[in-house]
Amino acid sequence: MSARESEAIILAKSVPLLDRQGDALCSVGVTPKGEWLRLYQKPPALTAFARWTHIKFRRHASAIDSRPESCDVEPNSIRIIGELPPSRRHDLLSLLETHRLEDARRQGKSLALLHPSESHFCMEQKTKAELAEEERQSAHPCPYRFKYRYTTESSEGEAVFHDWGLDNN
Fold it and tell me: What is the mean pLDDT of the chain?
């Protein structure tokens, strides 16, 4: 399959995953036009990038994830353009924002930026058994689970926060 030249602003990173060939990383980005991308990169060079890093790269359909936003990034194709200035971040995020997850699902999206009317965050310590299981799948398991409960125009829900880049602005 031929590669497609793309660019994205990095918004979130997952914990690096271990598989038979070593580390792999999934990062979430958005194109300047507001299209979501789930970027699989191996080896995980994206770990060096902070949130808001603007990159150019070559991509093709993901071999491991069939969700519509998913793609594999060609190794050694990543070029850093710079950092999205704070003054432009709100405009970019406003392109992504939704008040109803149902709207994103109806559009065939598996990623969304939910704007809840209410939210509550909590933290739970993982058990030793949970950490042992995660150590088989991740190079850097977090000893805590971060959850949030939310209310939107149409529903209530609970989810787990998976962003590994908590230390980045």
Answer: 83
